[in-house]
Amino acid sequence: MRTYELMFVVDPRVSDEDVVTMTQDYKNMITAGGSQITSEENWGRRKLAYPIEKLNEGKYVLLYVSSEIGKTALPEVEHRMRQNDKILRYLTVRTDEDLKRAARRPRPAAPATTVAPDGGEGAPEEEEV
Fold first, then answer.
1. Would strands 2-10 and 87-94 be described as parallel, antiparallel, or unpaired?
2. DSSP state of 129
3. How far apart are the C-alpha atoms of 65 and 58, rounded to whole Å?
4. Could you give the CA distance from residue 40 to residue 98 in angstroms, rounded to a whole number?
5. Given pLDDT bands bounded at 50, 70 and 90, which one contains residue 109?
6. Of the candidates 48, 35, 36, the residue with the CA atom closest to the CA atom of residue 8
7. Sheet (strand 2-10) strand order
8. How many CB atoms lie within 10 A of CB 61?
9. Average pLDDT for residues 67-78, to the nearest whole number?
10. Closest CA to 46 of 7, 97, 5, 82
11. What is the distance, to the nearest Å, from the Cα of residue 13 to the centroid of all Cα atoms in its chain?
12. Residue 69 in contact with residue 77, Cβ under 8 Å?
């Protein structure tokens, strides 16, 4: 089973009802392709990190998708998002690979504290003149 995060940013001039309808259409495409929507988050209107098409805000939607290997409609969904003028940006990330890498990566040891030669910790004290 593979897991994905699909986030897209919608033009802020689009009504909330249209965003819900658009999201439902994409969810229907994903489930028709054999995948499952495990979670959906509507982040609402937020400021963009940089202007896109002279817009400073966008409406964010995040979908978590699970699918069997070889059974995914995500390429078709991405193609439709690319053609939709109301979508400013989209990004699909395969998250199961990140989880596997994190499990395999050894944890770094905590840095040891250094002890000064005079028995104290830290930088040497200044002498009074």
1. antiparallel
2. -
3. 22
4. 20
5. low
6. 48
7. 36-52, 55-67, 2-10, 87-94
8. 22
9. 85
10. 7
11. 23
12. no
Closest CA to 38 of 62, 65, 60, 61: 65
Helix pair angle (74-83, 16-32), 10° resolution = 150
The amino acid present at 38, given as its one-letter code, is T
Please state the pTM of the whole predicted model. Answer: 0.72
Amino acid at 72: T
Report domain extents, the chain.
2-94
Match 């249209």 to its residue by tokens.
Answer: 18
Tell me the sheet residues that pair with 39.
64
Q: Give me the amino acid identity at 31.
A: T
Please name which of 98, 80, 68 lies closest in space to residue 27, comparing C-alpha atoms.
80
Per CATH, domain 2-94 is 3.30.70.60: yes
User: Is residue 90 within 8 Å of 8, Cβ to Cβ?
Assistant: yes
What DSSP string runs through 72-104? --HHHHHHHHHH-TTEEEEEEEEHHHHHHHHHH
Looking up tokens 């495990």 gives 38
Give per-residue pLDDT as tens, 38-49.
999 999 999 999
